[in-house]
Specification:
It is a single chain. This protein is 46% helix and 18% strand. With 320 residues, it is of the alpha+beta class. It folds into three domains: 104 residues, no CATH class; 115 residues, Tetrahydropterin Synthase, Chain A (2-Layer Sandwich); 59 residues. The longest helix has 41 residues.
Length: 320
């Protein structure tokens, strides 16, 4: 039974400008420091109660100002932070600026390695993921080496930090599994002599790489949607046979190419011979019996289909 991830509705914080609060708090803090220094300097002049009162007020004011300053957050362009308050989701800041929030909120770490405030920010930039090449068996069982690059970005920072432990690692693993899954559905190339197999595997990894890459993108998008990630593009960057069969498959490709070329040459040669015989008969240049026609056809096919240039023999007497 598939376990569904509990969704947290994203709430964006955009209204709190931190600059006025920062300036006012800074002024109040300096005033409290000045008050504390003045109370110490005039200790002998003031009464004990007034001295203690001024010292306590100044210290409390400084502590309150420090707490207020803890609620200030700087968000750079294409960055976001996710905030929680005593274990409850508080809000997400996705727009650049200087913000003030409840000073008791805490930033949610996107992964285990994010210990500092700077690392707890989530990048909204478009990022390229280039995973390592991996060995996969294609639809015909041939081992191949395939590599792909994915272009992605975080669209929902709240899902990225709450639904998965580390969205970068999660994306990388899902990308590997998607490449392996899709690559197994198609052959590297078609080399079968059976016409039924040719019709069954109309798409190949080598010949339909763009369509297959789009299938990879759609499959990967379904898997990482829970993490608030948008996959913009997937491209196959490397595709080759594995080393153990690369030499044999290269010979097979060469043989197939030679056979295809010979087929074209023979088809063209037969057409040219037929045209020559018809032209000779129509213009009545020479009348040939069936035996001489067969000899002429044989000679023309040898000349047209041979790999080397033919050496002509000039008959100075009769054509027979």
């Amino acid at each position: 039974m598939e376990r569904k991830v509990r969704k947290v509705e994203e709430k964006e914080i955009t209204r709190a400008n931190g600059m006025p609060i920062f300036l006012v708090t800074l002024v109040v803090m300096f005033a409290c420091v000045a008050l504390f220094i003045t109370s110490i300097a005039t200790e002998n002049i003031l009464s004990d109660k007034l001295y203690i009162c001024l010292a306590v007020v100044s210290v409390v004011g400084i502590v309150i100002c420090i707490i207020i300053l803890a609620g200030l957050h700087i968000v750079n362009p294409n960055e976001a932070i996710v905030l929680t308050l005593f274990g409850q989701y508080y809000g997400t800041i996705k727009r650049q600026g200087f913000y003030w929030t409840n000073p008791f909120v805490s930033l949610v770490s996107p992964n285990k390695a994010a210990n500092t405030v700077g690392k707890k920010k989530i990048s909204l930039k478009t990022i390229t993921l280039n995973n390592k090449q991996q060995k996969v068996n294609d639809a015909l069982g041939n081992p191949i080496i395939i590599g792909a690059v994915a272009v992605w970005k975080v669209a929902n920072p709240t899902d990225a930090v709450f639904n998965v432990d580390d969205y970068n690692t999660f994306l990388s693993i899902q990308c590997d599994s998607t490449i392996r899954k899709i690559a197994r559905l198609y052959p590297y190339d078609i080399f079968t002599d059976n016409d039924d197999n040719d019709e069954e595997h109309e798409k190949t990894l080598r010949g339909s790489s763009q369509e297959i890459a789009e299938n990879m993108r759609e499959e990967l998008q379904k898997k990482v949607e829970v993490a608030g990630i948008i996959v913009e593009e997937v491209r196959i960057t490397h595709l080759s046979y594995a080393e153990e069969i690369a030499a044999a498959m290269l010979q097979r490709q060469q043989a197939t190419a030679v056979i295809a070329a010979r087929k074209k040459i023979v088809e063209g040669a037969v057409s040219m011979v037929q045209m020559a015989i018809n032209q000779l008969a129509e213009d009545e240049i020479v009348i040939l019996d069936e035996e001489r026609k067969a000899a002429m056809v044989s000679n023309l096919l040898v000349v047209l289909c041979g790999n080397k240039e033919a050496q002509p023999v000039v008959n100075s007497s009769s054509i027979y």
